[in-house]
Amino acid sequence: GTRGGALAIDALTVGYGGAPVLHGVGFDLAPGEVVALLGANGAGKTTLLRTIAGLVAPASGDIRLDGRDLTALRTEDRARRGLALVPEGQSVVAELTVDENLHLGALWRHRGAARERAVADVYEMFEPLARRRTSAGHQLSGGERQMLALGRALVADPVLLALDEPSLGLAPLVVAHLMSTLRDAASSRGLTVLLAEQNVTSALSIADRGIVLDLGRVVADASAAALAADDTLRHAYLGF
Ligand code: ATP
């Protein structure tokens, strides 16, 4: 669509003081594309997402959103440009209700009627959240909490959504529902999605494309169908 959301990562090298964890990582995401970021534990998926969000500073390389360089911007300024990160761990405020969590996510972005509309749009998209509106975060199931974390990112109308292992700890049926909800949300809003997952099958089932990281390097970047069909690659890097 015309909303934007094109991400260009170029020659990104990132470390935590010791040897780099990411070595010259580069790839492009087209607006509206849903891309799975795959790789074993420790491959560098979380580090890459945190670098994109501005939580970790790269040693070199750059990150562009719709042609504008984000590399020097703080996390909140990246968010203002339309970048949202849903971190690992179903992060919601446990003491606040579903409704309060969603309003919190919309607070900095919208005011008045626009804020209420943004929250209402999320309820419309996520039926289970609408039913749990007055429940506290700690009363939700894992699947509902993950859906709320996703909803809280979406109320701010991002153009690019990065998710870190949303399937972690959820039962297979719950994962399937979450993935299809994510796919529908991305399609209806023209969102670009970068989905880091250990659950390769689930991620590829909704992704257009997949990028495989191994020891901090991109070792494959191909259509979801091509990746799922590549036995050698699956055995070497994806563990199935
Ligand atoms: P996981 O699924 O476990 O999150 P991942 O693919 O997301 O794996 P990262 O979490 O990015 O991988 O970790 C990549 C490497 O960076 C690992 O070797 C890890 O030990 C190291 N690492 C991650 N965070 C830090 C940190 N804060 N300080 C030092 N090293 C770190």
Automatic annotation (TrEMBL):
Domain named ABC transporter: residues: 7-240
Name of this protein: ABC transporter ATP-binding protein
Key word Transferase present: no
UniProt-recorded Gene Ontology molecular function terms: ATP binding
Keywords: Amino-acid transport, ATP-binding, Nucleotide-binding, Transport
UniProt record similarity statement: Belongs to the ABC transporter superfamily.
UniProt key word RNA-binding: no
